Amino acid sequence: MAFISELNFRGSAAATEWVEITLGPNDDPDDFVVSVYRHNGNLHSNAGIPGGEVRLSSLSPVPHPDNPNFTIYIVSVGIKSGTSDGNEGSAIALTNTTEGQVVDFYGAKSQGAIVAKSGAAEGASSDPVLDFTNLNIGQSYQWDVYGNEYYGTISLGSSILCLTSEVPVRTPLGYRPCHKLRAGDLVWTLDHGYQPLRWIGQAKMPAALFAAEPKTRPILLRRDALAPGVPLADLYLSRQHRVLLRSKVADHMVGEDEVLIPAIQFATSEIAEIDNTPPDLIYMHLLFDRHEVIDASGALVESLMLGPQSSEALTLGQFRDAAGHRLPRALYGCAKTPARPLLTGKQARALIDRTLARGAHLQPPCDDQPATALAAFF
After folding, report:
1. Residue 208 pLDDT more than 70?
2. Which residue intervals define the domain Hedgehog/Intein (Hint) in the entry (predicted)?
């Protein structure tokens, strides 16, 4: 469950730059080492971490703001999205030294894959994803618990990404509940027609957890919230599960008329709400070859996106199916490119507010959307 959750490297070396590590309830900080590397693969001893490495057990954690069962570690370290220099490295790694696994290893895009020549991550290759030009002032690289990468306002946190088990999803046989789907089943996608599911994962979320941890509570998207008939029934989503917004306002703001926005952003308006007394839920993860937009309860939402991860990433290994089996390594390369631009924070909320202010629908129904068939499901 441990993972690199945020990297702030738009500052001035180690003085204002840092990497954030999130550990799960069963993770032992003594198992994990953070390493900073030069572009040549050697440890960087002058980038803010003495000797180039630090074990998390030597640091003081803080409770995760959304769930105190998780802990956050902040490590001051200078990172560049280019060639390392005297006080900034080009790559950062998190390694479980007990299991001998490199959890996450992110490096400068301009340097290509950096092979660690020493230290805890020795022999592993970095994911060359860090690009300074992707960030605005006040933004950082962030990853959720499943390795999905995005750029957002500097903050702490992690999230889950999934549909609930009873949500009906559109297939060639009509709408079927998520929990009845199997790998290989065809599911309708907005961009590529009917596509086979490669894998299905799940995560049980008991009502007791929601009661104890208010910031884990799901978003309830009410019937007709996005447009008449969209969705055709109340829809539970995890906070970071992205929903398609289709609007001319989006085209004016970001140059695309379709974008994906986390469900939590819709709860700032009158069309959705945080459910303070939700029932037991089972979140489902529907994986395709590509990141897709699918039809769930008449609304267009995203499928699982794995993000630009290394095939050695432990976070991908934390996915489990109904039988408790992990996500097969052969599927680690699936669904890494977003199906639509991803909007978060103030930009997402502004788009929702402006679209509603114009009296426009947030998600007009698809031309071929079989509303009567879905109505029959209910």
Report:
1. yes
2. 162-307
